[in-house]
Structure formats: C-alpha cells, structure tokens
Design goal:
By secondary structure, the chain is of the alpha+beta class. Helix content is 35%, strand content 23%. Bound molecules: glyoxylic acid and manganese (II) ion (2 copies).
C-alpha cells in the first residue's frame, strides 16, 4: 500500500511568513506590504542563506552550481538511482508577494522535514532546489538558472548578462557568495515536480485549491528601441516631427488591439517598461524604449502575432521617419508537461480527497525548462483576490498552500519509491 504523509501546515506557513520579511517594502500603490527581492541582490542573498540554513537544519546536503542554483539532497537507499527533484525560485519581481516561487521552495523543504518526522527512507534520493533569476526582471531573461541547467542557455552567455547598471550575473554571483562549483548541467533527475501558486483566477473560479498543470504557454520578450529627433515642442510643425514617443505609444495601443481582435487566438500582450529617456515637457522625444511581453497557448498564433507586430512597427517607422531596433530578450515555445507525471499528481490528489482541475499555466516557470531533461509536471495552488500576482495583492491561504504541498509530498514519495 502507498504510504501517505501530511505536511506540517503551521510550520510551512511560518516559513512563508518568515521569508517574506526578507526584501519587505511598503507598496505605495496598494498600501500593502510587498516583497522586493530581485535576483542576486542583497535581499536575495539573505533569503538564499535563510533557505540554506533551513536545508541544513533538515539534515540535507547542500550544493551550489556555477549559475547559483542551489540543491539540497536527502539520501535514498540506492544512491546510484537518479533523484526526484522538487524546486522553484525565491527571487521576486520588484512588486512581488510572499508566494510566487517561494511556495515551491519552502514547500519542498517542508516535504523534507515531514519525511524526517515520519522516519521515512525512500528508495531514491530526493532533492529540493531553487533556481537563479527566474523572474528575469533584473537581467532581462526569465528562467535563467533553470535554462542554463537544461542546456538551452550557455553558462558563459548567462554570466555576461547585465542589469540596468551594467553589473553582470557572473560578478553578482561572486559578490553574494553564490558562485558555486557544482556542474550547472546537473545529473538528470528521475522526475521534477514544482508546486506553485496559479497566479490567475481559474482554480478559485472552479472552487478548488489544486490545479494539475498541463503545460506552459509560449512566451516572447522583446525590447524595442525607437530613435527619432529631439525638437522644440512649441515651434516644430507637426509634419516636421520624428516623434519616438508617439511611435512607442502607438505600439502599446496596437498590442492591445491585437489581443482584442481575436486574430491571434488567446494572445496576451503587455508593455511593462516604457522609457522616454530625458522626458522633458517641452521637447519632442528623440528616443523611446519599451519591452513587449507576448503570451500565447498556441505556437502558430504566437508566430503570427510576432510577425504582425514587426510589420506594423516597420510601417509606423517609415511613416514617422524614425529608426527602430529590436532586441530579443527571451523566447520559449509552448511546453506540454509529462502526461504520466500529471496523472500521478491527479491520482495523488484523488487519494488525498482534494478536488482539482487541469489547467495550462499562463505564467512561465522553471519547470518548463527542466522538462527538457526529465519527466516534469506542476501542482498549482489557488490564489485569492482574483489570483492576482506580481503585486502585493498576491495571496494564497494557509489551507490551500498546505493542500498543494501535501500533493507535492505524496507525489514525491511515490516517485522516489519507483524502481
Ligand atoms: C514569470 O513570473 C512570468 O513572467 O511568467
Ligand atoms: Mn514564479
Ligand atoms: Mn513571477
């Protein structure tokens, strides 16, 4: 008969509430306490050290790889077998909450504590880890650490990426003391499981705490730089202007129109970064930079959307006499998760008496990278308040967090006892 464990709900919640103090800030826009823990900053370093302490206290063996990913191992009976890996991230966006990524990491540590308390020894090693710069907010490429581990992004390239101040990933890893020496192309796991908040409304609308994730939609990140000509706001005739700001603003509006049109399936487009350089009231902007985040659950619709936007921008640039330059920041195709691992998660939820729905992920996750090297799937946990995330409004209640972590724990236990 399959063994069943229950994690310690209060202990998990206490860890979540403790970690959110690291990088805590007061969010003016919402009036709420938020978390700002950008990758490889001092706050991230402190949170990393706290997690490593918890891993060591749980009797785990900790290693850090060359891109700063951290793994902690609980040995199984047969050390020669590939491990079962759990993980996620503890970096946040600049306006983050307490759950995005951290639930999967602290939940994974809680699974280890629970197995210790129950005196369970598994056949295979179990590992819990966290990956560097999942958010991509500081260095411009999301899922960076897991993409390096999966071999999609070379280590050298990743280490040379810079933040807005020109600091590199490589130097920042050294500065915070997480430039480890373990091989970033880690031993291939038997399976990878990630528990994560849903960050959307699907589970709450369905009235369930748990989601079994079918896959992750395609993500495209590009930076567009528009170069026009500065000119006097009062004296320059409208027809004589090369207004970089106007072109950039038109792109924002077109991106939204594309979503509303239905011509590109379930496209979601976001311009989250919009900069007019000097930004002077009485000067026609000579330069504008903006980022364009596109998401689509169908690769062909994503391709069509990117092509349409490129044509639109070319025509707009010609009409206004400005130059444009595109920079690719990140691009991932639709990633379906492993059917058998999804089914194992679903069977585990059934056995625990926890209702669930199956859903695609709207957000990007480390799991989509790790799925390139081993069978992978994810458990989602419902959010409250509409499931908003990347804002301090993000909230999942203690019961939902614990239920998701119970699914994680018992699915890991089953996988770790597979011969
Ligand atoms: C990760 O948080 C994403 O941007 O989807
Ligand atoms: Mn996340
Ligand atoms: Mn996130």
């Amino acid at each position: 008969m399959t063994r069943t464990v229950r994690i310690n709900r209060d202990r998990l919640w206490a860890s979540l509430m403790e970690l959110k103090q690291i990088g805590a800030y007061h969010d003016q826009a919402t009036g709420l306490p938020g978390v700002r823990r950008l990758a490889l900053t001092d706050a991230d370093a402190e949170a990393r050290r706290r997690c490593v302490d918890w891993m060591l206290q749980a009797g785990l063996t900790v290693r850090v790889d060359r891109i700063g990913n951290v793994y902690a191992t609980r040995p199984g009976r047969d050390r020669s077998l590939p491990c079962v890996l759990m993980g996620s991230h503890i970096d946040t966006v600049a306006t983050g909450g307490a759950f995005d990524g951290t639930l999967g990491v602290l939940g994974g540590i809680e699974v280890m504590r629970t197995l210790n308390d129950a005196g369970i020894q598994t056949l295979r090693d179990i590992e819990v880890g966290f990956f560097t710069e999942e958010e991509g907010v500081r260095f411009g490429t999301d899922m960076l650490g897991s993409a390096v581990t999966a071999g999609r992004i070379p280590l050298d390239h990743a280490c040379k990426l810079t933040d807005a101040d020109g600091k590199t990933v490589g130097d920042e890893l050294i500065r915070i003391g997480f430039d480890g020496d373990a091989d970033e192309r880690r031993p291939i796991p038997h399976a990878y499981l990630e528990c994560h908040i849903e960050q959307g409304p699907i589970l709450a609308d369905a009235g369930v705490d748990i989601g079994i994730v079918q896959g992750v939609q395609s993500i495209s990140w590009q930076r567009l730089t528009v170069r026009g000509e500065a000119a006097h706001a009062g004296t320059t005739p409208i027809a004589a202007r090369h207004d970089a700001g106007l072109v950039a603003a038109s792109v924002v509006v077109e991106a939204r129109r594309m979503c509303d049109s239905g011509d590109f399936g379930q496209l979601r487009a976001t311009v989250g970064n919009f900069d007019l350089g000097a930004g002077q009231t009485n000067v026609v902007p000579h330069q504008a930079t903006l980022t364009i985040d596109l998401r689509n659950p169908a690769d062909d619709h994503m391709t069509a959307a990117e092509q349409h936007l490129a044509c639109y921008v070319d025509q707009l640039a010609a009409r206004h006499g400005v130059q444009v330059a595109w920079e690719r920041m990140a691009k991932t195709a639709v990633v379906p998760f492993h059917p058998a691992i999804q089914d194992l998660l679903a069977a585990t939820a059934d056995d625990l008496g926890l209702p669930y729905v199956r859903a695609m992920s709207g957000a990007g996750h480390d799991a989509q990278e790790i799925s390139a090297i081993c069978p992978t799937a994810m458990v989602f946990v419902a959010g409250e308040n509409g499931g908003f995330s990347h804002t301090p409004r993000e909230y999942s209640n203690p019961g939902a967090c614990a239920n998701g972590t119970d699914v994680l724990a018992n699915a890991v236990l089953r996988l770790a006892d597979q011969p």
